[in-house]
Amino acid sequence: MRMTSLAMASLALVLSACGGGSSSAAPAPAPAPAAPTPPTTPPPQTNQPPETGLPFLVKPVAQFDEPWAMTFLPDGRLLVTEKKGKLKLYDFKTSRAGDIAGVPEVAFGGQGGLGDVVIHPNFAKNQWVYLSYAEAGQNGTSGAAIARAKLVLDQAGGGKLEDLKVIWRQEPKVEGQGHYSHRMAFGQDGHLWVSSGERQKFNPAQDMNTNLGKILRLHDDGTAPADNPFADRGGVAAQVWSLGHRSILGLAFDAQGRLWEHEMGPKGGDELNLIERGGNYGWPIVSNGDHYDGRDIPDHPTQPQFTAPVITWNPVISPAGFVIYSGDRFPGWKGSGFIGGLSSQSLVRIEFDGVGAREAERFDMKQRIREVEQGPEGDLWLLEDGSQPGGRLLHLEPRG
């Protein structure tokens, strides 16, 4: 089923939907068919989101410089990426954030910089950590990349990356600083799933000679599995699981192993999609939003050969970060999805019904929310999106 609001978002709201980065400066082409941070984390700011009316307590814990993503280690410590190119290790026992050395150089600007961080399913044995980031190319181009490295921690509260190797790149690198996407998730089968945005270039989302505008399924070393739906085509097409995507900033698996993703629409039309093998989700041929210059884009129902979103938002929520909750601290929310809202400054709860979904609640956080994670104890954790004075790490606890 699909839920769509009839109200249109204002232009200012839509432009903020791209997460504060650069937006497409020119009208779309006609679519073809087919400063270093000290080791001690500064104290959180006092502009705590008001708790009135929220069903949870909101506790600021730490503050980071433009944080983008986070992941918990088995020992309970937290890795946090900062967009300018730092990887931080936060220790809740000491309230300190140390630096992890050896991070690759990033192309910082617009929506580009250091992005996602995940650990390997067998991290306890191999210590592998995966980083996504914007990588500079020639003549002002850039593209997303993923590097794998061994995380070696020290007694001082920091550490380093060893044996770093780039295992995947967007092809081709293009001009501009938007729509890298570069979210990662490991599936139950041990494969690495990657979102690759269409870099605000529209038509590559339908072009199987590029891996832009696609969701990719890879081995943990970055190679393409032989049972991928387009493996027989070779090249970057062999990486592709689904196509026709715009800017995917959330990937999450439910308890049944189904992959869900959300992506930002153009001028309206944010989406939540259930990802199907070989599915084509229609961008830029169809969308429930419009071009920034006001030109209409045909809605999904007009071309049913494309896989339609399960939910669309209009006005947009500007989705960022995504977790499907499996803990016990919020028992009534087990199985719910939680999406951070940038322009909507919200936390959005999604209820799933098999292959259907609906927005169940929206919590006003008064700040742009970049990332959502579930902690080891089953609490929810958020990262604010901000550099002035900084994005806070927020701990959500049940009331009572």
Summarize, please.
The chain has 400 residues and is mainly beta. It is 2% helix and 40% strand.
Description:
By secondary structure, the protein is mainly beta. It has one domain: Neuraminidase (6 Propeller), CATH 2.120.10. It is 2% helix and 40% strand. The strands form five sheets. Strands 2, 3, 4, 5, 6, 7, 8, 9 and 10 form a nine-stranded mixed beta sheet that branches. β8 and β9 (159-169) form a beta hairpin. It starts with 10 loop residues before the first helix and ends with a strand.
Low-confidence stretches: 1-51
Count of helical stretches: 2
User: What gyration radius follows from the Cα positions, in whole Å?
Assistant: 20 Å
Average pLDDT reading: 90
Q: How large a portion of the residues is in β-strands, by DSSP E?
A: 35-45%
Please tally the β strands and state the result: 25
First and last CA, distance:
35 Å
Main sheet properties: 9 strands, mixed
Structural class: mainly beta
Highest-level CATH class: Mainly Beta
Q: Which bin fits the share of residues in helices?
A: under 10%
CATH H-level superfamily: TolB, C-terminal domain
- Domain module tally: 1
- What are the secondary-structure elements, in order, as H or E? HEEEEEEHEEEEEEEEEEEEEEEEEEE
In the CATH hierarchy, the architecture is 6 Propeller
* CATH topology value: Neuraminidase
